[in-house]
């Protein structure tokens, strides 16, 4: 089935199940904070593993004790699709195990 862009309203509805995630309509974003830099770096590796599994990749920025993500779907011209929401769900599922908040 073809991947279709979601309206901003649809994205906002889906993000209600993903606390901390937000959208400007063209991407979904979240910033996690950690107790230390290595915890943040470990989360980056885990996210990379999930992204390879899904073949869907965020813009991922490792800061001091932070990890910032932005994701949209390039193949539909940089809009948000269900693939982005699925990636966010998968990342949220592992975040508590990394002490992310
Ligand atoms: C060929 C391969 O399926 C594409 O390049 C994938 C890889 N990762 C991707 N990641 C994201 N965020 N959007 C895409 O459209 C995308 N496309």
From TrEMBL:
Keywords: Lyase. GO terms for molecular function: 4-alpha-hydroxytetrahydrobiopterin dehydratase activity. Pfam families: Pterin_4a. Its EC number is 4.2.1.96. SUPFAM superfamilies: PCD-like (SSF55248). InterPro entries: PCD_sf, Pterin_deHydtase. It catalyses: (4aS,6R)-4a-hydroxy-L-erythro-5,6,7,8-tetrahydrobiopterin = (6R)-L-erythro-6,7-dihydrobiopterin + H2O. It is an enzyme of class 4 (lyase). It comes from the Bacteria. Belongs to the pterin-4-alpha-carbinolamine dehydratase family. This is Putative pterin-4-alpha-carbinolamine dehydratase.
């Amino acid at each position: 089935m073809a991947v279709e862009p979601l309206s901003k309203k649809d994205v906002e509805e889906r993000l209600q199940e993903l606390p901390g995630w937000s959208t400007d309509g063209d991407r979904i974003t979240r910033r996690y904070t950690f107790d230390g830099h290595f915890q943040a770096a470990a989360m980056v590796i885990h996210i990379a593993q999930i992204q390879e599994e899904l073949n869907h990749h965020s813009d991922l920025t490792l800061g001091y004790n932070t990890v910032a993500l932005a994701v949209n779907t390039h193949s539909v011209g940089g809009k948000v699709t269900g693939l982005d929401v699925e990636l966010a769900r998968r990342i949220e599922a592992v975040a508590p195990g990394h002490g992310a908040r």
